[in-house]
Automatic annotation (TrEMBL):
This is Competence protein ComEC. It is found in: Cell membrane. GO terms for cellular component: plasma membrane. It is a multi-pass membrane protein. Residues 1-30 are annotated as: Disordered. Residues 1-10 have a biased composition (Polar residues). InterPro entries: ComA-like_MBL (IPR035681), ComEC_N (IPR004477), Competence_DNA_uptake (IPR052159), Metallo-B-lactamas (IPR001279), RibonucZ/Hydroxyglut_hydro (IPR036866). It comes from Sphaerisporangium krabiense.
Length: 690
């Protein structure tokens, strides 16, 4: 396999699927294309010459096309593709690039089929919840991340809460604890309660699928339950050590997984530190509160050294976020697990169980969102061995400092002052966004997303970029809570793919769209989403105007002759882009969507207003009319473009023309978000990264 991969040979392979397919966000560009990653094991490979090899080699399949996301672990498929070398240092033999649907050779095993039935039932029952809760509940209960919102995923990671979507010992402990309580209420003896706990954990493992994290948690929990049932004193560290050794002997690849190491360290920290810290804290607070504080602190303290090695950062908000979100995990897990068991029989009853679980999940999402939005939610720290050594020295110094009561009080006072400085003073003097911003070109990669201030907490948004998380991040940092008008200049994915991000926790008054067919492609998806949200959808016509806050906005195009102009379908859609003229007391800007030379010529015929700032059409592509660029008489240009994009944007020819006209160019790929501000009697542009 390694030799075939080194020559990037085209092959036909028979693969046994070993993990759940993972769908990646849609590709940047004009159209949405599904990309799926599937882990599997190659059992038979055939080259183009007809030579066949039997093997058992782990591979990662990068696939496009239908049929991949519906696969279940244990299924066997035949696929044609091209092999490539795997990432160095991994236990993967090769990667396989496939562009066609797989040929299914066999169905899933009985446990996997049963698990698939329960998981699909939970997804169906969760359909009554809002999108964010709908995606997180299956992830929290059974590790099903297929519907997970990308922004929720990022907020959880920033807040130190990403572990809630990793099915592990915590989930099994919740289920086992509930079963033991029911057994106690039923008057069952200790041994029977232990056996019932093991049965409950096995049932949960089937629903969650026997992934490595689930198996190691099941082994650990079973050892603990046996110790409980025999009445012997349970040695948690011994059980943990036995579990680690057994699992590594069974699957040596776990030794290289950060997830496995984090799980072991978190469990060890809880076993070693939590009891002592709980007892000390219990002298000053109720025992329940002491335990609630000691457990997340112990787990975070144990995993922090590894996190420093991995990412070079400290999660400053992880402990308080876990304290706030922790109480909601158990009810969401139990109600979701019960709903997954009931759904195959009655989806209506399952929805009644999902409904209260949605409130618990919504609380977790709210905590993650607020924590991730705090200043210094994550702190930069040197990575690698240097960072680890510095962390150890800091911990020792802190321990020596806190041993003396007087120094302890002084340290607490200093810490309180730093917290106030971070949460209160820093936001007041924050460098972003700049005071009095009028327009911001958000850095959303290869796409467009513009935000025009329309009053306190309000803004008009022009295009959404390709990913919801990126535009939501930009709007959140700008403090935008209401969007009275969302303008989608044309239905290409790099301009409308982030639609859900604008709607996240915001009120959207209406959406302005370009003329054209609304029943298929991205236009059809947008219209369907707006109907579902009951948001008005207006078609743009020249002359429409709005006055909101400091902004006066007028629609200049598209004109009738520009709508069907262009050498191909993509250019026709681009030329139908909505063109806007934004005016403030101190200046104006021309926002052109992706119009190309044909539409630019039409704008010139109808009379083009001058503007101080020009948003360069189509990310600075070469299809620009020099007369159009000159007629605007702009002093500065904004280019929204992705770093190292595949399109060659912005084109060198376009940059040369702009420099010849004396227009200063600002780019999101090199300077990040770009803010337009009022500077006395003229407009200025402030890049986020100089």
């Amino acid at each position: 396999m390694a030799e075939l991969a080194s020559t990037r040979s085209p092959v036909t392979a028979e693969i046994r699927v070993t993990g759940d397919p993972r769908t990646l966000p849609g590709q940047h560009g004009t159209a949405r294309r599904e990309r799926v990653i599937v882990q599997g094991s190659v059992e038979l490979v055939e080259t183009v010459s007809g030579t066949r090899y039997r093997t058992d080699s782990p591979v990662v399949v990068f696939a496009n096309g239908p049929g991949w996301s519906a696969l279940l672990p244990s299924q066997r498929v035949r696929v044609r593709g091209r092999l490539g070398p795997a990432e160095p240092g991994t236990l993967t033999a090769a990667v396989l690039l496939a562009s066609k649907a797989p040929e299914v050779l066999s169905g899933p095993s009985t446990p996997q089929r049963v698990a698939g039935m329960f998981r699909s039932g939970l997804r169906e029952a969760a359909g009554i919840l809002p999108p964010a809760e709908r995606g997180l509940l299956p992830g929290l209960v059974v590790g099903d991340l297929s519907l997970m919102d990308e922004q929720v995923r990022r907020d959880l990671a920033t807040a130190g809460l990403s572990h809630v979507t990793a099915v592990s010992g915590a989930n099994l402990a919740i289920v086992a604890g509930a079963v033991v309580v029911m057994g106690r209420l039923a008057g069952l003896p200790l041994a029977a309660r232990a056996a019932l706990a093991i049965a409950g954990m096995i049932g949960f493992a089937v629903v969650a699928r026997p992934s490595p994290s689930v198996l190691r948690a099941l082994v650990m929990g079973s050892v603990a339950a046996v110790a409980l049932g025999t009445g012997r004193s349970r040695d948690g560290l011994a059980a943990l050590a036995a579990t680690v050794l057994t699992l590594i002997l069974f699957d040596p690849g776990l030794a290289r997984e950060y997830g496995f190491a984090l799980s072991v360290l978190a469990t060890g920290g809880i076993l070693v530190f939590a009891p002592r810290w709980r007892d000390r804290l219990a002298r000053r607070m109720p025992t329940i509160a002491a335990e609630a504080l000691a457990v997340p602190c112990a787990a975070q303290a144990a995993v922090t050294p590894l996190l420093v090695l991995m990412s070079g950062q400290l999660e400053a908000v992880a402990v308080p976020a876990n304290l706030l979100a922790g109480p909601a995990v158990a009810p969401a897990t139990l109600l979701g697990f019960a709903a997954s068991l009931v759904a195959p029989v009655s989806v209506d009853i399952a929805r009644w169980l999902v409904w209260p679980a949605g409130y618990a999940v919504g609380w977790i999402i709210w905590v993650a969102r607020q924590a991730a939005g705090l200043p210094a939610a994550t702190l930069s720290w040197p990575g690698g061995a240097v960072g680890l050594l510095l962390l150890v020295l800091s911990a020792v110094a802190l321990w020596l400092l806190l041993r003396r009561p007087t120094l302890r009080l002084a340290a607490c006072a200093i810490a309180g002052g730093l917290i106030i400085a971070v949460l209160v003073v820093r936001p007041v003097v924050a460098s972003w966004p700049p005071d009095g911003w009028l327009l911001v070109s958000c850095d959303v990669g290869q796409g467009d997303a513009l935000v025009l201030a329309a009053g306190r907490g309000r803004a008009i948004v022009v295009d959404t970029g390709p990913e919801p998380a990126l535009v939501d991040r930009c709007l959140r940092e700008l403090g935008v809570e209401q969007v009275p008008l969302l303008v989608l200049t044309h239905p290409h994915f790099d301009h409308v793919g982030g639609l859900d991000g604008v709607f996240r926790a915001r009120q959207v008054g209406a959406v302005l769209v370009s003329p054209g067919e609304r029943s298929r492609g991205e236009a059809g998806r947008v219209s369907a989403a707006l109907r579902q949200r009951r948001t008005p959808e207006w078609v743009a016509t020249p002359g429409m105007a709005w006055h909101l806050g400091p902004l006066a906005l007028t629609v200049l195009g598209p004109s009738e002759e520009a709508i069907m102009a262009g050498p191909g379908e993509g250019s026709v859609t681009n030329n139908a882009s909505i063109v806007l003229h934004a005016r403030w007391r101190t200046g104006s800007a021309l926002l052109c969507g992706d119009v190309e030379t044909e539409a630019q010529e039409a704008l010139l015929k109808h009379g083009l207003p001058q503007a101080d700032i020009l948003k360069i059409p189509h990310h600075g592509s070469a299809r620009q009319d020099p007369r159009f660029l000159a007629a605007v008489r702009a002093s500065a240009a904004l280019v929204s473009v992705g770093e190292d994009n595949d399109y060659g944007h912005p084109a060198p020819l376009t940059l040369t023309r702009l420099r010849t006209l004396g227009i200063r160019v600002y780019r999101t790929d090199t300077q990040g978000d770009l803010a337009v501000t009022a500077d006395q009697d003229h407009l200025s542009i402030v890049p986020r990264h100089h």
